[in-house]
Amino acid sequence: MSLSRRQFGKAALTSAAPATTGVVGFPRVAGLADGNRSSFRSHDFPPHHLRHQGYVLRIDPISSSSSAADHLDATFRVIS
User: What's the pTM?
Assistant: First the structure.
């Protein structure tokens, strides 16, 4: 499955081929709130990151001037 950007910044999973859906990649980067954790930045929209808000996975712009809460929402602990 792939993650694609949807209306209002919400993210949705789709099984469609990337070439037909405009699917974007999310490289793993150092966590915005904790460098020992991970954040996922949009490849196609660099200021945008995956974040969770109200039990919904979203794709929102987050910068160094964003709130601490925004940084926490975009920082994840990756487990294997």
Answer: 0.70
